[in-house]
Amino acid sequence: MADALVWLVALPLAGALATLLLPRAATAVALATGLATGTAAAALLYGVATQGPLHYAIGGWTAGLGIALRADGLSALLVTMTALVVLAASVYSSAYFGDGSQRARFWPLWMLLWTALNALLLSGDLFNLYVTLELLGLSAVALAALGTTTAAVQAALRYLLVGLLGSMLFLAGVSLIYTGYGTLDMATLAAVVEPGPVVWPALALMTAGLLLKTALFPLHFWLPPAHASAPAPVSAVLSALVVKAAFYLVLRLWVDVFADAVTAAAAALLGVLGAAAVLWGSWRALRAARLKLLAAYSTVAQLGYLFMFFPLLHALPPGPARDLAVGGLVILALTHGFAKAGLFLAIGVIQQRSGHDTIGELDGTAQRLPATTFAIALAGVALIGLPPSGAFLGKWQLLAASFATGQWWWIVVTAIGSLLAAAYTFRVLGRAFGHRPYPNQPVTVAREEWPALLLGAAAAVLLGLAGAPVWKLLEASA
Amino acid sequence: MNTITLLVFDGLLLISIVSLAWAALATRDARRSVILFMAFGLVLALAWGRLLAPDVALAEAAIGAGLSGALLLAAVSEQPHAAGVVRPSISQNPGRAGTRTAVRWAITLLCAGLAGILGWALLQGLDSSARDTLAQAVAANLAISGVSNPVTAVLLNFRAYDTLLELAVLLTAVLGIFALGQARPGYQCAGPVFDSLARWLAPVLVLIAGYLLWVGAHAPGGAFQAGATLAAAAIVLRLAGRSHIGLPAGGSLRLVTVAGVAVFLLVGLVLLLLGRPFLGYPPAWAGALILVIETAAMLTIATTLVLAFLGGRPQALWREPGVRRDAPPASDAPGAAAPANESAAPSLAAGTQEQTRC
Amino acid sequence: MIDVLAAVLILLGLGFYLAGSIGLLRLPDLYARLHALTKADNLGLGLLTAGLALHAQDLFTSAKLLLIWLAVLAASAASAHLIARHARRRETGT
Amino acid sequence: MLTAQWLYGLTGCVVVALGLRAALLHPSLLQRIVAINVMGSGVFLVLIAVAYRGPGVAPDPVPHALVLTGIVVAVSATALALALVRRLRAERNDG
Fold first, then answer.
1. What is the fold of D3-94?
2. B131 pLDDT exceeds 80?
3. Which domain, by its residues, includes B213?
4. Cα(C52)–Cα(C3) distance, rounded to whole angstroms?
5. Looking at this predicted complex, what is its ipTM?
């Protein structure tokens, strides 16, 4: 079962090479490899559920010398979400890209992005994380630059420069860790590391690099233009998966590897930045003129919720309350992934069919594109955190943990954030249901609307009603 | 006596490194900055030699100073002579000059603080004795790694997965460059002196590349340095105005671009199917497998670095399916990336669209 | 004996390098500076590699050292020519 | 701890700071790319200084391999950044 770890990286990489060698059959090859990788992700999830954390030493060398791939509950769930979101977006892309040469350039980069995501989520070695972060950054920038407008190229260039700065800071932190402990393997580090003059600066540098890449509040300026000007399936994956991979790394470093080097003040700082991101992101989303900008700022806000969990997790002693909070964090991350991907795909349909995505002129969209508007509504439910959605469970645990630790201010921020989220969602839906003088026939684009609908439904209903296995899986692999 | 002279040499070397770095970054003129950066790269290669890292010195000279320098010079030569494309820096650019100097001071202090923290943590870290564990592990396993050069052993055996992903990074960069537009126009035919130099230098560079690849198993060298030298041969030919610089055309160009990652992945997966761990070469076969992978990696690294130097899709060599003139459908719907017509700025020599035979 | 000869050669080479560097700083225009660089430094490098070749353990290393000198000779001659021609063209405006 | 180690290590830290400052402040795009390369070289200087074990002793090969990988990653990132700058300039010229 541990072989699934290798196949999850090797298959998309092989897919990238195959789509590059056979440009005419790129779509078919990409979808086939995607299905294979999806089954590998399912096998991994099953393996972690039954046997607990999986471990694979590449080349057979011991962890310190060689590189180890590891998967516990958290990374298995994120790998599965990545597989589902990328598969849905791949089906969407097969209809979205018009002509052959654009499609031939898209698929290899798309599979390389998937390789980078899986390699990052499964890696157990710090320098290997640097290489995967670079692979993720470069493929994301190359995909974002597929947009034909000047704004897309300018946003992609700024995204690349910020990404390179983030990677360099991360590498500086890794070199300090190697100076102090002589090993790069995260498992051995977790046992050896103790708070001290080497770990704090190293963790601060690595975190600064990762916060740049995950666009937490003060460092989020590059995200809205990059995500708003990229093609729709690329924006979906950028918002739902790429920024979340960087968040996953911060979580892995702070909660798992360097857990006892983390101070309450540092965790509180992340919480405050998260709270600021929630308020600022939601406010800018409310005032956004275009749907894509709204979705991009909503990403900045939703990531803020995830960072608000850090002070709570630091305050909660290990026990059932903490496991519930960790489960809440994971399910909130998963729900945002599905919902944001569905939202961006739906916005792509609107943009392609009506030539623009300005919110002001959305009148009659509900009549013309009923399924797409329904998908946006489902995604909205999940972004707000209304009951049937997974986000409701996540925010509930956030509130419960705030009560348990007595840090009440996170409750206020969550309430305001959810209110603002409701405001910007209903603003869009209200405009979409506005009547036009002469209603035109509804248009359905099956291959583009089904993925958006399924992702929205997964976020709004499936994760809410069938959320229990997430907690069980996290405990099984704790 | 010996340590004093060594200290003086170290001092001079470090002063020149810092001053070159500062000079390269302080000038307003982009051309001067790039040339100073290349000098910085070469002096840094000296520093690697002094710190007994010959492999890294070769790579720094060939790739860090050489190819990065060539890429930057090609980019600078296309730029209108004004001081670079002036854009607000990454941090929001406040309007009035007062706040702008305040921001400059704040960032300078922030960087100085970062240097202080980094240096202080480094000194603390250097005290700890735990640093030799990996070096001893490498020495212990060197015998079964298939090569005797420890750096090549780490790169292509112990941490082969890193090198596989790194070749994927190189491939991603080239695919990104291809998605952005056409290659630059070729250069004008070189005069007799440079043409004869290129005619003589290219074969020698190819020979050196083969030598570096072979020697990498037991002495400093290896696929990266060899690939960079091979790329240097092709770039010299291109600068001499040749239109055919050794790149294959059509399907075989795609094959060579993909060869490095493909062979690496193939070897890894075949071993996996034979029951061994992924990329776990059997000791008896390790040397041969590493040589096969390094040869493919050399070809791929050379091809990708040359394609990166071209700056875009070589129209004649890289054929893509789809409509010849890509008609852009609805607005933001990603019509084909309008092939960027050649920028008006003259390159080194005003290259005509179709290269004259020289 | 060999060491003394090698030391003398290396010192001579350094002398020419010094002359080249001073020439680079002091000489008025581009063409004169090119002379200083290509002539003095190449001769300095030749003497330096000859001195080092005497120190080298085996013939193969000294052969490689001399190869380095020949390569630098060719490269600096060609690049000096290119720089001079480029400067000339910019002056006379052709 | 050898003198060469902390000498070259601290220089690496200074070069990282220089690179970061120019990467954040420099108006010209091209020189910001040069700045990021310089910052990377500074980090590599720290890594190789840590690997140094003294004049006659064989150094630790692992940081050497890491820096080799880092150099190739840096050149590919620089190539993509320069292609983006070139495309941006082409769009601006006829934009």
1. Helix Hairpins (1.10.287)
2. no
3. 149-320+329-358
4. 10
5. 0.93
